[in-house]
């Protein structure tokens, strides 16, 4: 199979480089190889950013560069001077072993580890030789931290200081199309991107540019795809780089206008959803679909949104009911009496409910 290469996105010469696609296509390997090459040739170091401090503890930290080591790339780059990687206290060093197993370690680390959950501990330290920052697995189905984007910006600020020679790479598998980083960075067209394309965003008169690449899937697939050949659309993220979407319950019956006793709205990630409370014979449920026109400017419908709005009919958290009507709305979610027009609508609601839980 053809593994991912950095050539195309590096050609955009962007400050931030966001790369997402199928699992195990070589994204992480490509950046680790790039970072080590920079160190060998220039002495410049890299930073590896993860969400949790646990990602750097014990075996997890010590095996981060195993793929590069096992490929023999380090030995090739250094003409045999270094062949392996030694890990200690969130730092990685090039090393080699003699025939008796004795280790010789390079004087300086080629890479430092930074966890978003412990970034306060790194603020007072200077890292003037780091010119490559790699945030691996920035996309998540459920594990975003409160104000995570700000935490990530603080890590970058700690490393960059007053310099302008640092490139940032953000790597992710296609596990969640509704990611807070997309909105925070103003990346408005990610949902419409096709595999194999790169979009470049610019910001006013500043020199900031962000290149976003939807990595092209392996042309002939991976040999390991045989393990995921089940008739399950959720596995297409692993085998072909499609966005991971769960399967959600669809409406069990045809709804007539007279069956709709109340309408409320959810606005999340620039998506407007119309939620219809339906009473039909002995069935009582909520049906949710996209609304393709703006919400009427009145106060007759409840609107749930992550934005602040002082209007009495606007609320942020569907999980914090205050009135009797809001309690009735919340009950549908507690009792799983929610049906969706399609699976992507279900994903929007799922991510909104996760947001409600994170900000509770």
Question: Which key phrases capture this entry?
Answer:
Rossmann fold; 360 residues; 6-stranded mixed beta sheet; 10-stranded mixed beta sheet; 10 helices; alpha/beta; 16 strands; single chain
Could you describe the 3D structure shown?
This protein has 360 residues and is of the alpha/beta class. It folds into 2 domains: 7-240, Rossmann fold; 257-358, no CATH class. It is built from 10 helices and 16 strands. It has helices spanning 7-10, 27-42, 58-62, 66-71, 73-77, 148-160, 180-184, 236-240, 324-334, 343-358, and strands at 16-21, 45-50, 84-88, 91-97, 103-105, 111-115, 130-136, 167-173, 197-202, 209-214, 260-268, 271-280, 283-290, 303-305, 314-315, 338-340. Strands 1, 2, 3, 4, 5, 6, 7, 8, 9 and 10 form a 10-stranded mixed β-sheet that branches. It has a 6-stranded mixed β-sheet with strand order 15-14-11-12-13-16. It is elongated, with a radius of gyration of 24 Å. The mean pLDDT is 90.
Question: How would you summarize what this structure contains?
Answer:
The protein is α/β, with parallel strands linked by helices and 360 residues long.
Present the secondary structure layout.
Layout: H1 7-10, E1 16-21, H2 27-42, E2 45-50, H3 58-62, H4 66-71, H5 73-77, E3 84-88, E4 91-97, E5 103-105, E6 111-115, E7 130-136, H6 148-160, E8 167-173, H7 180-184, E9 197-202, E10 209-214, H8 236-240, E11 260-268, E12 271-280, E13 283-290, E14 303-305, E15 314-315, H9 324-334, E16 338-340, H10 343-358
Parallel strand pairs: 1-8, 1-10, 2-6, 2-7, 7-8, 11-14, 13-16, 14-15
Antiparallel strand pairs: 3-4, 4-5, 4-6, 9-10, 11-12, 12-13
């Amino acid at each position: 199979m053809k593994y991912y290469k950095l050539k195309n996105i590096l050609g955009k010469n962007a400050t931030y480089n966001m790369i997402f696609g199928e699992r195990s296509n070589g994204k992480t390997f490509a950046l680790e190889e790039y970072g080590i090459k920079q160190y060998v040739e220039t002495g410049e170091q890299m930073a590896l950013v993860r969400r949790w401090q646990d990602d750097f503890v014990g075996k997890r930290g010590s095996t981060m560069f195993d793929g590069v080591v096992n490929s023999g790339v380090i030995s090739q780059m250094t003409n045999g001077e270094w062949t392996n990687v030694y890990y200690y206290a969130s730092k990685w060093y090039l090393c080699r072993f003699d025939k008796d197993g004795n280790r010789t370690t390079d004087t300086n680390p080629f890479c430092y580890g930074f966890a978003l959950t412990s970034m306060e501990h790194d603020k007072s330290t200077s890292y003037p030789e780091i010119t490559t920052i790699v945030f691996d697995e920035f996309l998540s189905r459920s594990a975003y931290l409160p104000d995570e984007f700000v935490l990530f910006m603080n890590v970058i600020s700690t490393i960059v200081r007053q310099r302008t020679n640092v490139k940032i790479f953000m790597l992710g598998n296609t596990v969640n199309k509704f990611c807070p980083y997309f909105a925070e960075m103003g990346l408005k067209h990610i949902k419409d991107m096709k595999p194999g394309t790169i979009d470049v965003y610019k910001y006013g008169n500043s020199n900031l540019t962000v290149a976003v690449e939807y990595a092209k899937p392996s042309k002939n697939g991976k040999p390991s795809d045989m393990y995921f050949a089940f008739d399950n659309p959720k596995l297409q993220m692993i085998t072909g780089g499609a966005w991971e979407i769960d399967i959600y319950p669809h409406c069990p019956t045809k709804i007539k206008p007279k069956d709709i006793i109340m309408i409320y709205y959810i606005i999340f990630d620039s998506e407007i959803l119309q939620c219809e409370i339906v009473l039909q014979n002995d069935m009582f449920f909520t049906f949710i679909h996209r609304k393709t026109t703006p919400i009427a400017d009145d106060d007759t419908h409840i609107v749930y949104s992550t934005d602040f709005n002082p209007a009495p009919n606007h609320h942020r958290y569907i999980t914090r009911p205050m009135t009797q009507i809001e309690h009735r709305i919340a009950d549908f979610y507690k009792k799983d009496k929610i049906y969706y027009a399609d699976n992507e609508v279900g994903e929007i609601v799922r991510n909104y409910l996760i947001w409600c839980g994170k900000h509770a």
